[in-house]
């Protein structure tokens, strides 16, 4: 049936309703796993905090207070509740810097994964569906990307292009398309032989429509799992690049830069290197827990990734 | 089998050509590479001189061919900062990086495989749950932060281990542990899941039915088959290790290629950056090739299936 001619109520019951039901069932399936539930709630809390902290913690992360340099966390001797997690070598508030840093990490993580997924989806669909020479060219390029140590690729490109939030997202996204493209290509190869695809080809449906309406919805779930787990990796890489001085440019507070700056004062101020790292770990842990749950619920075949 | 090996060799060659192209072109990304290498106040004459000396006035394909043919002979030109051959600098630092990567891999495998086996054999026990929770934490920890935490604990608080540098085994402990932790976590989870799958197979049941001792069943029949995916993943992860050394070497002031490349980037020493990146990528490709060949040896089905 051609949906363009269908009236709204039919389109809703035939197309949207089953998908909504599937989404609801998947969410229930994921939430049934305690670890995924914990991960999901933790991640939700982190994202909500990152969005709303100016409402309850409006301290300026760049404001220097040289009289309150290297102040320990509130519960340690010499600490105060004015700076709950202490201050750095310039007297800047650690908690405020961590909260602001969360925005950079989450933005880069999510956006880079979106860039990578988009590239991977387009190239994977084309490669798997059309096959032939186009497929081998795309897959040979993928081989080269797979063989290139990811960290080296990103740091060398960032070194040349200069570090900005935009460059970071672009470079991390472009470096990471291969896994998605390969996953999609594999699924497309098996799907394109299925009867429903052959049938729609037989009635003359254009390839573009077959790809977007019939094949793509069937390969979404492995992509969702993969994407979730890759956000965690991208956040680790982003903080690594920041640590090396190649992340978002100063004065933007980032978790990686906080670690790099705090490392100099490691003998006197343990809190400078401990809290930003804990923030990274908690974020990654929540994403990994949720990702594992999603994978088990949606696609048990991916269990070893 | 011979055909499979030839196919893999061909694969390695074109991957290396691709990598050399990326390494060559990344330096042209910004427009004029000479401007990147010189300070902002360089005179017009200085710019022209360097451009002529490095051959940037030639057409790009000619430049690439010259770069590639020199690279094959191990000649990556001279470092702009140290004024010696880039290859010489790399060869000097390479043993340190390989030492670190191999140590990390050894630590990761020797801890993870036994943990994975025990977790699989005693599935859902307290031990299993504890180690899988540990593995999850290990996966969630950025390795450079773990490195800093180890320094905080073992050097600053306890004073047991040196904070940086290379020399004795004590220098190697923290960097290799920090670098290997993520892999350890991943291998432990992988070993567990592969072992669980293998333990449910008919041949394991047969071995048990024959009355073989449990240790033999697990050690000989199950583990041997579980090793195949483990070897592949371990090989593939070598690239991760090489990437990881870049940051860990910076944390621990480890005198390897990773630290060299970071310093070269800050010194705008692009010929050296190019050389480091290419050499590390080639090592990665060669290791993957070796792993693939080992894989054929472990599982003869592979070459047969590939040829079909």
UniProtKB/TrEMBL annotation, chain A:
GO biological process: transmembrane transport
Ranges that cross the membrane: 36-59, 104-130, 150-175, 215-237, 269-291
Keywords in alphabetical order: Cell membrane, Membrane, Transmembrane, Transmembrane helix, Transport
Segments forming domain ABC transmembrane type-1: 102-291
Membrane topology classification: Multi-pass membrane protein
Main location per the UniProt record: membrane
One cellular-component annotation, GO: plasma membrane
Subcellular location: Cell membrane
Signal peptide (residue range): none
CDD domains documented for this protein: TM_PBP2
Family affiliation: Belongs to the binding-protein-dependent transport system permease family.
Protein name, entry field: Peptide/nickel transport system permease protein
Automatic annotation (TrEMBL), chain B:
Chief location of this protein within or outside the cell: membrane
GO cellular component: a single term: plasma membrane
InterPro entries: BPD_transp_1_N (IPR045621), MetI-like (IPR000515), MetI-like_sf (IPR035906), Opp2B (IPR050045)
Entry superkingdom: Bacteria
Keywords: Cell membrane, Ion transport, Membrane, Nickel, Nickel transport, Transmembrane, Transmembrane helix, Transport
Record's subcellular location: Cell membrane
All residue ranges annotated as the ABC transmembrane type-1 domain in the record: 94-291
GO molecular function: nickel cation transmembrane transporter activity
PROSITE patterns per record: ABC_TM1
Record-annotated membrane-spanning stretches: 12-29, 100-121, 133-156, 168-188, 226-252, 272-298
Membrane topology label: Multi-pass membrane protein
Family to which the UniProt record says this protein belongs: Belongs to the binding-protein-dependent transport system permease family. OppBC subfamily.
Protein name per the record: Peptide/nickel transport system permease protein
């Amino acid at each position: 049936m051609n949906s363009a001619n269908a009236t709204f109520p039919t389109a809703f019951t035939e197309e949207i309703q089953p998908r909504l039901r599937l989404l609801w069932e998947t969410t229930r399936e994921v939430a049934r796993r305690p670890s995924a539930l914990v991960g999901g709630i933790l991640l939700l809390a982190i994202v909500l905090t990152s969005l709303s902290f100016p409402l309850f913690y409006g301290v300026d992360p760049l404001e220097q207070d040289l009289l309150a340099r290297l102040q320990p966390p509130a519960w340690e001797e010499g600490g105060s509740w004015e700076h709950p997690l202490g201050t750095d070598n310039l007297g800047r508030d650690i908690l405020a810097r961590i909260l602001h840093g969360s925005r950079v990490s989450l933005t880069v993580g999510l956006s880079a994964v979106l860039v990578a997924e988009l590239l991977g989806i387009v190239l994977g669909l084309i490669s798997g569906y059309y096959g032939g020479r186009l497929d081998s060219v795309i897959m040979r390029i993928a081989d080269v990307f797979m063989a290139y140590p990811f960290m080296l690729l990103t740091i060398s490109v960032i070194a040349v292009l200069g570090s900005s939030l935009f460059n970071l997202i672009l470079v991390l996204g472009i470096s990471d398309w291969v896994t998605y493209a390969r996953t999609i290509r594999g699924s497309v190869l098996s799907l394109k032989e299925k009867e429903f695809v052959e049938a729609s080809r037989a009635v003359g449906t254009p390839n573009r429509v077959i790809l977007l309406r019939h094949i793509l919805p069937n390969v979404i779930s492995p992509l969702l799992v993969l994407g979730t787990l890759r956000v965690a990796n991208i956040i680790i890489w982003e903080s690594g690049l920041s640590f090396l001085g190649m992340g978002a440019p100063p004065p933007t507070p980032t978790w990686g830069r906080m670690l790099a700056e705090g490392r100099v004062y490691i003998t006197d101020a343990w809190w400078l290197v401990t809290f930003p790292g804990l923030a990274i770990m908690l974020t990654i842990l929540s994403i990994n827990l949720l990702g594992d749950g999603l994978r088990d619920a949606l696609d048990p075949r991916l269990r070893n990734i | 089998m011979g055909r499979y090996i030839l196919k893999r060799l061909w694969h390695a060659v074109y991957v290396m050509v691709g990598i050399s192209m990326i390494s060559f072109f990344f330096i042209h990304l910004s427009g004029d590479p000479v401007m990147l290498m010189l300070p902002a106040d360089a005179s017009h004459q200085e710019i022209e001189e360097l451009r002529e000396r490095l051959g940037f006035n030639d057409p790009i394909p000619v430049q690439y061919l010259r770069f590639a043919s020199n690279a094959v002979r191990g000649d990556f030109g001279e470092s702009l900062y140290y004024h010696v051959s880039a290859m010489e600098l790399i060869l000097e630092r390479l043993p340190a990086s390989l030492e670190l990567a191999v140590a990390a891999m050894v630590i990761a495998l020797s801890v993870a495989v036994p943990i994975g086996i025990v977790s699989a054999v005693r599935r859902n026990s307290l031990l299993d749950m504890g180690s899988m929770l540990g593995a999850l934490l290990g996966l969630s920890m950025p390795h450079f932060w773990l490195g800093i935490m180890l320094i905080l604990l073992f050097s600053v608080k306890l004073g047991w281990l040196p904070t940086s540098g290379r020399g004795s085994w004590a220098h190697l402990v923290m960097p290799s542990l920090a670098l290997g932790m993520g892999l350890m976590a991943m291998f432990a989870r992988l070993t567990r899941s592969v072992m669980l799958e293998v333990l449910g197979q008919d041949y394991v049941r047969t071995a048990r039915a024959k009355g073989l001792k449990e240790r033999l069943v697990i050690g000989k029949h199950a583990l041997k088959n579980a090793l195949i995916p483990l070897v592949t993943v371990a090989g593939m992860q070598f690239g991760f290790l090489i990437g990881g050394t870049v940051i860990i070497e910076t944390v621990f002031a480890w005198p390897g290629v990773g630290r060299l490349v970071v310093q070269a980037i800050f010194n705008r020493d692009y010929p050296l950056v190019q050389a480091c990146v290419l050499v590390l990528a080639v090592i990665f490709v060669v290791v993957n090739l070796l792993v693939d060949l080992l894989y054929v040896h472990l599982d003869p089905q592979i070459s047969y299936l590939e040829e079909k």
